[in-house]
Known about the structure:
Distance between the termini: 70 Å
Shape: globular
Number of strands: 6
Structural class: alpha+beta
Mean pLDDT: 85
Strand content: 25-35%
Order of helices and strands: HEEEEEHE
Oligomer: single chain
Number of helices: 2
Amino acid sequence: MSSDAEVADAVVAAATSVPGVTGLNSGRFGEVATYAAGRRIVGVRLQEFSGEVHIEVDLSRNVMDTAEGVRAATEKASGRTMTVIVEDVTVADPPAGEHAEHEDVPGAQDPSGLSAADGDR
């Protein structure tokens, strides 16, 4: 029988292999983890016959399809029923040379809260 650490490592590998998963997440208070000798395996919580995997998903992908892919992959890897929790979404930066949509809008504000016209005062 595999140790919880070995199962958790397999769950991490399976989850992160699914397109659209940008990482695992330890939950709001850092409580989601499996403990192994000398380390924490973040984003995976195991029970005897089931488990949870907490993921971050690229918002350019279908979140539900990504979560379903993670569920199937992690159940196969762990041999347990797995619940997938999407903790956060990420947005990839636009490729070099492309502008964010708001940059072409006259009067749009930058992240500092100042518009281009404010710098001329």
